[in-house]
């Protein structure tokens, strides 16, 4: 049976090895900043455990204050790493209460009420661990199995720290003089070793999961415009059935080859980015934009009537026609032609809707370009053509 000192040293050794591993991972993938934050947090907790062990053998008021401050600081750092991973940027809601609690703890300990200092610190740590668990439970949107385990371990660890504070509170131990040593502290040490080991494995899993998500996003994103690419269109809608409230708009920039020949490819790239910016301006829930390649773009619109879909496509066409790109040869104004295909009541495949949109697009070009033509609505067109390059 391990004694209390052995449990503390085991926790310190486990944390040190885990921290070194995470630092090594961060060195190979510096963009994973949350891994670095976890490593720093665990290293602070290792320092807390070592000093706590020393404080248990050689009690000292100032050493007690450092021990308690390191515990709160270490858990705060882990909480911030969770916020980094989950994209929660309001760090103040964790930092400010923790700093306030650390100030109260330091004040109580300096006055000789180290027991109160421990109770306040345990309450703070319990709140931080609970916040981590709640954030992963609510905010996590990737692999729920991993995130739920993180929530569970955080909850168990929070409970163990809460028990440590509860024991001191029930016994009314406001003044200790030495580091607390009771059944709750021993249980907490064992739980901390287990949770620290589990946290390390889960951090590696989360890092791997995040890397997969980023790689998938890169393979489905057009690097020039930032819109999704053809691969993404097939992945998201290749197997979808297009009903009566779904439509596809195809856009083709007018005379784009001439733009490249006269003004150069860098200007052509700028025109493409400008069109992508216009598309984003009119994006909304149920509207996904893709660049198929070259000067061809696709807009997939869901949960809207044919009239609404045509209205959005027409507004994009008109708005792009007013865009002016400055060049060495003078201002450049480009236009775009569009065609819309609609899903049917019996359901239509992506390929069929794209074919209808493509046919409508060529109808727009034959009609003089700089307009949007909708399948079965060829009488509709936007404003008269603007002069293009």
TrEMBL record:
Cellular compartments per GO CC: plasma membrane
SUPFAM superfamilies registered for this protein in UniProt: Nucleotide cyclase (SSF55073)
Keywords: Membrane, Transmembrane, Transmembrane helix
TM segment ranges: 6-27, 34-54, 60-82, 94-113, 119-138, 145-170, 190-209
UniProt EC number: 2.7.7.65
A Pfam short name: GGDEF
Record's catalysed reaction(s): 2 GTP = 3',3'-c-di-GMP + 2 diphosphate
GO BP annotations, alphabetical order: cell adhesion involved in single-species biofilm formation; negative regulation of bacterial-type flagellum-dependent cell motility
Domain of life: Bacteria
KW Nucleus (keyword) present: no
Keyword 4Fe-4S: no
GO molecular function annotations of the record: diguanylate cyclase activity
Coiled coil: none
Gene3D superfamilies linked to this entry: 3.30.70.270
Ranges where the GGDEF domain occurs: 244-377
PANTHER family noted in UniProt: DIGUANYLATE CYCLASE DGCM-RELATED, REGULATORY COMPONENTS OF SENSORY TRANSDUCTION SYSTEM
NCBIfam families per the UniProt record, alphabetical: GGDEF
Protein known as: diguanylate cyclase
UniProt source species: Mesorhizobium muleiense
């Amino acid at each position: 049976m391990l004694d209390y000192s052995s449990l503390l040293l085991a926790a310190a050794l486990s944390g040190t090895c885990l921290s070194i591993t995470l630092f090594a991972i961060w060195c190979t993938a510096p963009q994973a900043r949350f891994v670095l934050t976890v490593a720093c947090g665990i290293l602070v907790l290792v320092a807390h455990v070592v000093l706590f062990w020393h404080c248990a053998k050689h009690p000292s008021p100032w050493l007690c204050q450092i021990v308690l401050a390191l515990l709160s600081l270490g858990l705060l750092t882990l909480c911030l790493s969770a916020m980094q991973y989950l994209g929660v940027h309001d760090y103040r809601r964790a930092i400010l209460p923790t700093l306030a609690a650390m100030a109260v703890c330091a004040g109580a300990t300096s006055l000789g009420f180290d027991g109160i200092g421990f109770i306040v610190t345990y309450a703070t740590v319990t709140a931080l661990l609970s916040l981590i668990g709640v954030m992963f439970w609510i905010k996590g949107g990737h692999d729920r199995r991993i995130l739920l385990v993180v929530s569970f371990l955080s909850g168990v660890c929070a409970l163990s720290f809460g028990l440590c504070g509860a024991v001191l509170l029930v016994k009314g131990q406001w003044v200790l003089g030495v580091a607390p040593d009771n059944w709750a502290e021993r249980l907490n040490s064992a739980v901390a070793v287990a949770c620290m080991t589990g946290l390390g494995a889960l951090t590696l899993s989360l890092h791997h999961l995040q890397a997969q998500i980023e790689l998938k996003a890169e393979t489905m994103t057009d690097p020039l415009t930032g819109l999704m690419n053809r691969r993404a269109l097939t992945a998201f809608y290749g197997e979808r059935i297009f009903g009566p409230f779904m439509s596809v708009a195809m856009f083709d920039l007018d005379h784009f080859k001439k733009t490249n020949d006269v003004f150069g490819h860098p200007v052509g790239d700028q025109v493409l980015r400008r069109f992508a910016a216009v598309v984003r301006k009119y994006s909304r829930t149920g509207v996904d934009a893709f660049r198929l390649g070259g000067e061809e773009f696709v807009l997939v619109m869901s949960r809207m009537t044919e009239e609404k879909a045509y209205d959005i496509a027409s507004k994009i066409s008109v708005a792009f026609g007013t865009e002016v790109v400055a060049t060495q040869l003078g201002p450049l104004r480009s236009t775009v032609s569009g065609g819309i295909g609609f899903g049917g009541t019996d359901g239509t495949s992506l390929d069929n809707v794209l074919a209808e949109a493509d046919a409508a697009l060529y109808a727009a070009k034959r009609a003089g370009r700089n307009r949007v033509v909708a399948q079965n609505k060829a009488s509709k067109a936007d404003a008269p053509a603007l002069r293009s390059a």
